[in-house]
Amino acid sequence: RSLCHENLEDWVGEAIVTSTNRRLEGSMRRNWWGFAGKRSADVALHERAGPQLLAECHKLRAELPEAQVMVTRGGDLGARYVIHTVIPSHPGGRDPRPMPAPQAGDVATADEAEALLRQAFANALGACRDLKVSSVCLPAMGCGCRGYPVEVAAEIGVQALKEAKMA
């Protein structure tokens, strides 16, 4: 049990948890969001893992509902498994300018977003238990492109670990 700060796609172990969008292709924010070309951690994982990760995702599902999980192989990553989950964007990080229609549906109210984040953490940790992994990289989901306040997301993540008896 340890906490660390490192590059997600460089992590080596059994499972990496990543939050993605419903279409299982990560988020690439444009100028309209204030992230000007920055990519989500999921986009970085897909780039490192190679095209076979996205192909496997789309072979299993076209879309993944919020807070559900899907497990794939790690591809060219240093992890055996990638556990994908979907969380909505938090309104606390929302750019006040109009959002393109495809992304507008990915924003929930603060209460809904936090409940779905809680459920996503629980489901991801449940998948880890089912896979019997001994190591997992569980990032600060929601704190980047999805705009969750860091304190809120951290509290939800730590509580999920405690409830799963993993902290």
TrEMBL record:
Residues 1-167 form the Macro domain. InterPro entries: Macro_dom, Macro_dom-like. Pfam families: Macro (PF01661). It comes from the Eukaryota. This is Macro domain-containing protein.
